[in-house]
Amino acid sequence: MKLADDIKSPKWLYIKGVLFLFAGFFAAVLIWIQQPTFQTVILLLIVSWAFARVYYFMFYVVTHYIDGEYRFSGILSFLRWLRKRKRTER
């Protein structure tokens, strides 16, 4: 497997997901340690929820409701698609 290849093994995909979960949790805890207030916790929850919704929009909503031809492969692919779409609408 080359570094640029897609991960196809379910085992490694689960490991990657767990690592993302730990990274997000660790970052949130570090932020809360710096500013241990209820407001910080609420704002972290709102940020997490909002970015998850944006990602869902880029991944699911665009491919199922806006452009059935588009295939999501990451945030950069979405930005390229958006730029291309703006050019064709002019």
What brief labels describe this structure?
single chain, 90 residues, mainly alpha, 0% strand, flat
Mean pLDDT: 89
Low-confidence region ranges: none
- How many helical stretches? 3
Overall, the morphology is flat
Number of strands: 0
The percentage of residues in β strands lies in: under 5%
Cα distance spanning the termini: 43 Å
The portion of residues assigned to helices is over 70%
Tell me the radius of gyration. Answer: 17 Å
Structural class call reads: mainly alpha
Q: What are the secondary-structure elements, in order, as H or E?
A: HHH
Q: How can the largest sheet be summarized?
A: none
Map the helices and strands:
Elements: H1 10-34, H2 38-66, H3 75-89
Summarize the structure in short.
The chain has 90 residues and is an all-alpha fold.
What does this protein look like?
The chain has 90 residues and is mainly α. The protein is 77% helix and 0% strand. It contains three helices and no strands. It has helices spanning 10-34, 38-66, 75-89. It is flat.
